[in-house]
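User: My collaborator and I are trying to settle a disagreement about how two of our proteins should look. Neither of us wants to argue from intuition anymore, so we agreed to look at predicted structures for both before our next call. Could you fold the first one, then the second, and keep them clearly separated?

Assistant: That sounds like a sensible way to settle it. I'll keep them separate. The first protein:
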Amino acid sequence: MDPDWYQKHKMDNVDKLRYHSNKLKIFFEKYLITGGIPLVINEYELNKEIPNYIYDLYYSWIIGDVLKEGKTKQTLKEHIKSILVCYSMPVSWYSLAKRSSVKSHVTISSYIELLSNLFVVFGCFFFDIGENKVNYNKNKKIYMYDPFILKIFSNKLNIPVEKEKIVEGIVGATLKTTCSR
């Protein structure tokens, strides 16, 4: 927490905090729609909607980067579909591979690694409290960094993801980016 902000607001009354809370809810609801991408945010603020060309632009960007790495669009879509169906649930590479026509856990892990390098998804690996270390062999949860990117694939593949699961992913992404510094 920022010490200057704390000093400025430590004597705020409940009404002022309630006002800020309501503003934060409004901003968070917008974030669930736009994610953190400036073009999307600006378009939504100006027109209260996101035009289809922006969805297509970011979808094409991700597909293009995957194709540049010698991967296929169809396999990518199958793996993302597996991720969305299991969103916020612990999974293994093997269980994700079983849900697609490509049955290799090595293939799924290579696609997830690529998507992770593109900052599309991240893995939340099992942390063994008793051992005080990450166990990479246990099931993991796969999340998308940005709710707008999640919405693109959710819409394209016609797989809805519940708001609570999207929020869980946002919390995970925030923790991952702030705690790993």
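The second protein, kept apart from the first:
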Amino acid sequence: MKTAFISYVFGNDHAVVNFGTFKMMASFNRFHPDIPLYMLTEKEINKEVQTVVPMSLAYLNPLMTRTIADDYDLVVHIDTDIVVCDRLDEILEGDYDVAVARNNADQGSAGCGTPHNLYGNVDVFKYANAGIVASTKKEFWDDWVELNQKNFNKYPMHEQDNLNELLSAGKYDVKWLDPPDAPLYYNIASAYGDVEKWNGRWDKHWESWERIEVKDDKLWLDGKLIKMLHYAGGNTPDKFNLTRHFNDEVTEHIKDLCNIPKKFAGE
């Protein structure tokens, strides 16, 4: 199956550092050097946003991803604030229309706050995060773009809420990459904190990452293999500063995945 991943970054070159983009690119290529990874920039974004009205930066994922959908059998949007920690075979294998991963943690929270569930219309454990979305159907990306237009500014999570409305409609065969009973984590479900103690405090959403361990040269948490670390959180400051959240062994492991020399801390 002809496959490609795609992402985008906007703003000046400093955004590539702030959002950890180079870390995503290096870690992805570590495990998948044979798969194209497209990185679109402000020039391409400015061109595409002229084709859809209404439009804002909160609705770019399907708009930019569909630009390569005619050329590949499987297209995968991947956010820039991700570190790929292992081969993404669950995405590359299987017969499905759309593959997604959970937003909410095993404990039923979003980080250390209230879980997202589209106002109760979606099961807490079947609410997808838009940071990793794969599809074998070009029509899917078009449907998502159209729903973003229809529901413009309707939901607080914008395109992510619209993604979940689309998935729940039943039109597409959906593969969940990391259901709660699976022995692995994709996306953001590995990041959570003590809800009662922190009550949504923004810098405690990743408290669980302090317990990640390195075993057999892979990352593990709660007895589950971590396939990717997705920082998420929108414009959260200091994304993927590796001196935060992780113990020293895990930090060194992630630095190696991201091609950061040992001499440097990995901020």
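Some points you might bring to the call about the second protein. The chain has nine helices and twelve strands. The domain at 3-257 is CATH 3.90.550.10 (Spore Coat Polysaccharide Biosynthesis Protein SpsA; Chain A).
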